[in-house]
UniProtKB/TrEMBL annotation, chain A:
InterPro entries noted in UniProt: NarG-like_sf
Protein name from the UniProt record: Nitrate reductase
Keyword list, A-Z: Membrane, Transmembrane, Transmembrane helix
Membrane spanning stretches: 14-32, 74-95, 115-137, 149-166
Organism (species): Sedimenticola selenatireducens
Gene3D superfamilies the UniProt entry points to: Transmembrane di-heme cytochromes, Chain C
UniProtKB/TrEMBL annotation, chain B:
Main location: other
Residue positions binding [4Fe-4S] cluster 1: 62, 65, 159, 193
Keywords: 3Fe-4S, 4Fe-4S, Iron, Iron-sulfur, Membrane, Metal-binding, Oxidoreductase, Signal, Transmembrane, Transmembrane helix
The EC number(s) this enzyme carries: 1.12.99.6
Reactions catalysed: H2 + A = AH2
Protein species of origin: Sedimenticola selenatireducens
Subunit structure of this chain's protein: Heterodimer of a large and a small subunit.
Chain sites annotated for binding [4Fe-4S] cluster 2: 231, 234, 259, 265
Cellular component, GO annotation: [Ni-Fe] hydrogenase complex; cell envelope; ferredoxin hydrogenase complex; membrane
Protein name, as recorded: hydrogenase (acceptor)
Domain Cytochrome-c3 hydrogenase C-terminal: 226-305
Amino acid sequence: MNEPMDFLIWTRSTAFDVAVTIFVIGVILRLFEIISLGRKQNLAEAKGTEFGPGMRTIFSRSVPDLGTFRRQPLTVVTGYMFHIGLFISLIMFVPHIELFRATFGFGWPGLPTPIVDAAAVLALIGLLAGLWHRIMNPVMQKITTFEDWLVWTLTFLPILTGYLAYHRMVDPYPLILGLHVLSVEALMIAFPFTKLMHTFTVFLSRWYNGAMNGRRGVES
Amino acid sequence: MAEKNTLGESLRRHGVSRRGFLKFCTATASLMALPPTMVPAIAEALEKAKRPSVIWLSFQECTGCTESLTRSHSPSVESLIFDHISLDYHHTLQAAAGEAAEAAREAAMHENKGKYILVVDGSIPLGDPGYSTIAGISNLEMLKETAKDAAAIVAVGTCAAFGGLPQANPNPTGAVSVSDIIKDKPIINVSGCPPIPTVITGVLAHFLTFGSIPDLDQYNRPKVFYGQSIHDRCYRRPFYDKGKFAETFDDEGAKAGWCLYKLGCKGPMTYNACATAKWNQGTSWPVESGHGCLGCSEPRFWDAGGFYNALSVPISDNSQTVAFAAAAGLALGAAAAGLNYKNKDEATKAHGTVTIDDLEKSS
């Protein structure tokens, strides 16, 4: 009789402790390792500065390249849909902000729930379109590995279960809320060891690209 | 005792008018989410209903459930209904004590075999039977004996329904719920700490009217009362959706009646009728008086994190976990970096030069 609530309590205590420990250790370990390795010293004479172009590239790469857009408009549009939808539903939903506040001691104002709800739907549609593209496109078929399926599933489940929990589409409620928390924990555990690390490394690699171009005097 | 006269006769004898009686029937119909066309049927069924025998057993409890039922609603028609079931045993309310009381229970069980309703409040200790006894009989033994010939069991309060406060971690008495022990009888869980008085009278009225138990949810609670969450029926819900929250109990948001989610309201996970039925004859309910819902009608609500922490906040202190994990991550990252530098160094040292001649030889 009490199992759904026992499950929810477990996901909010023991399972969360395990997941957050693996996540934090893994992410910091990998970032520290990457940064400490640095890059090979370039002995050629510098033709420009590194810092400015590096910083500029971090932002400029967020604007889609026109050529890519013409070749793969769907990939670009659904990619943006998914990332913006995920961003809003992850860090602009008040219960999520309260979790950050309890962990790090600071929070920020959230958005009204209808906006977060719409963002979650956008993220789900974006992910489904990405999956369809991965299955149908012959090139994608060739380059897709097990990790891609795993990462897609681990990203899709938290948004789906969150949507189901918010709209109370599964009974009993503690079961679906527990599944939502558990799916996020699975994502957190896999995060440091998969391509999900791009969440943090994307900005590092953009900076390196921009800095290298800047040094060689290439416009970034 | 039971079945001597009908409920209708009994109510008239106590001066309840036809109008008052029909008003109660209408309220019951709307409470049970039945169409208005059912009101005459309810009235007729209640009019003719025989007074069922009710045996009320109190185990590991605080008597709060009995307080809720007896005090807050007198002298209403609901309480008269409650009076006019034949409450044959209730060791807090009955005049008899000791052996006479136990004799009354046994007599009721014998005379109404298979027909009486058993109401239980309080959990049952499975640890030492001596943790809770009545007239020298352990709770477990009394429950099994009395449940054997009951028509149905109503577990009143979260203790009887789910184990309740006595089951709170580390559960020193080994407390369990009624449904953990009795498996072969229909059990209606009327959870809450305490439950809303109208809900228990509503369940009994349903039983009197239809002779059956109401539709139940996964936790065996009547769907009519526990079908919707506090959150979904809360009058402060629009503030939640707009993102307007009270941050402390005395800020402008709290004064303006904004959502109490951030102050620990467990409304989103709690299913009960507080937001609609309210308390103290419809006067108010916890959220209306400015305090978040504790989730008292849900299993293990006492172990589900701090009452003043938001529902989304983890139960254990994870800021400490994060700090330790970050330190461990840095140490491991430094070790990994050291290892990588060593590999790089060794690779540089082991670097040999290759000439054109070497390449020609190997090909």
